[in-house]
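User: Hi! I'm a student and our assignment asks us to look at how structure tokens line up with a sequence. Could you show me two examples?

Assistant: Happy to help. In each example below, the sequence comes first and the structure tokens follow. Example one:
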Amino acid sequence: MKCFWAALVRTFLVLGILFTVGVKLRGESVNQYVPAYIGLFILSVFVRFISAQFTLNRYLEWAFYQVSAFEQETSGNLEKYLKIKHRDF
């Protein structure tokens, strides 16, 4: 189990460094990217743990599919999809 955690941390760091360098080379904000990367990595590890459980995998697979389909459907258009109006304060 110790080897698993070491590999997970190594994967987190290597991918984080590579993707952060890519974001920096594209001229985008690294300060906005890093928290998003951390959140997505934690979410993906959580989903991986759930998918490793037979019962949860069997019954929750469709839920994960629906969440990803909803994200793809509303990507960039969430406000329009939910009919949220922006308020200027």
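Example two works the same way, sequence first and then tokens:
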Amino acid sequence: MNKMPPQHAAKDQVLPASLAGQLAGWSLKAQQYPVFSRSWFSCRVRSFLWPMAIFTVIVLIIAGVI
């Protein structure tokens, strides 16, 4: 049974560009990390918060609360 070399064991290391892909979007930085790693999750949360904050402000303005 082959064991993986130690350099492949770290979960929060940035993936090589050839594996990460070059897709544009809010979560471009998150694509550089392995899925479900702590760094990936924090990038996804940050990329989701800004659009939700803007949407919430627009809804509150339309509702007349602000």
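Here is something you could point out in your write-up. The mean pLDDT is 76.
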